[in-house]
Design goal:
- The protein is mostly helical and about 70 residues long.
- About 45% of the residues lie in helices and about 0% in strands.
- The mean pLDDT is about 85.
Length: about 70
């Protein structure tokens, strides 16, 4: 609720940070805040049976008569 209730103030806050501390500081603040809004992707590891190598089979499909 605290974040949603103050989202409309975000632009002013970033402008103030930029005036007082520079564009880099405002950008860093913005990037830190996005961590809480945009979910991070988790790393995924694929492996074969019992953690062994993954077997990849590539099949080529063609039209009849090729």
């Amino acid at each position: 609720m605290a974040v949603d209730g103050n989202a409309h103030k975000l632009g002013e806050w970033l402008d103030k940070i930029e005036r007082e501390d520079g564009a880099r500081a405002a950008f860093e603040c913005f990037m830190k805040m996005t961590e809480y809004h945009v979910p991070k992707l988790a790393r995924t590891e694929l492996s074969g049976t019992d953690g062994g190598p993954l077997q990849v089979i590539v099949q080529r499909f063609t039209e009849a008569g090729e």
